[in-house]
């Protein structure tokens, strides 16, 4: 039985913990934060005018209607999002994942994370957002296929550094060549091994170290302003590590909130030379 309306949401990510060339393609793993996109799907008699910012959501909606055997149905989608655009925080993917969940609920159906990702990549390159509730998941950056998965959901916080600068993820994917990524394959294999050790031991310290190594590799291909100064600031406090949006502009300084006070960090960051360039705020990890 169909409902008249349904609502669903999906968290943002703070970039990726790591991303690079592994086993024949680019792989990535991300973590969620407590910003989200919320989508409402409502049955309507005719298709509404589609905002330019929601074209991909409606493309996905039509694919889902066909999948559910309801191609004649018309739906209006409404989006409310807290996620900054063009920063590498999965704003677009969160919209699409939330759309999948909302449309499925409208018909009393559910979709697995693999099914959601399979639909999303028909519209645009996806990330691991659909899998966040299951734990850290390594996926293929192009196809969305799962390469490896763990049930571990590491709990930490991030001091998010978000610049005003926006960057198109699709443009970055076109600019970064396979050759560039392959040239870092040996080094990234070591990063991935460090990540695996972190997961096996459930060590936040090792996880932060692996993320920092991946961020440094991506800095060679997609430089972040003030990266060295941010690293130097990081060394003044017991941060776990640093992660970046590998195809965006945001940076996350990972920390254990039981060891570092969020308000103190925000006060200290305002005294740094990069504070005028980056807006700083605190986010906790979110796996749902």
Automatic annotation (TrEMBL):
InterPro entries: GHMP_kinase_N_dom, PduX, Ribosomal_Su5_D2-typ_SF, Ribsml_uS5_D2-typ_fold_subgr
Region forming the signal peptide: none
Residue span, GHMP kinase N-terminal domain: 58-129
One MF annotation (Gene Ontology) recorded for this entry: ATP binding
Keywords per UniProt: ATP-binding, Kinase, Nucleotide-binding, Transferase
Pfam families named in the record: GHMP_kinases_N
Name recorded for this polypeptide: Propanediol utilization protein PduX
Source species: Loigolactobacillus coryniformis subsp. coryniformis KCTC 3167 = DSM 20001
Taxonomic lineage from the root: Bacteria, Bacillati, Bacillota, Bacilli, Lactobacillales
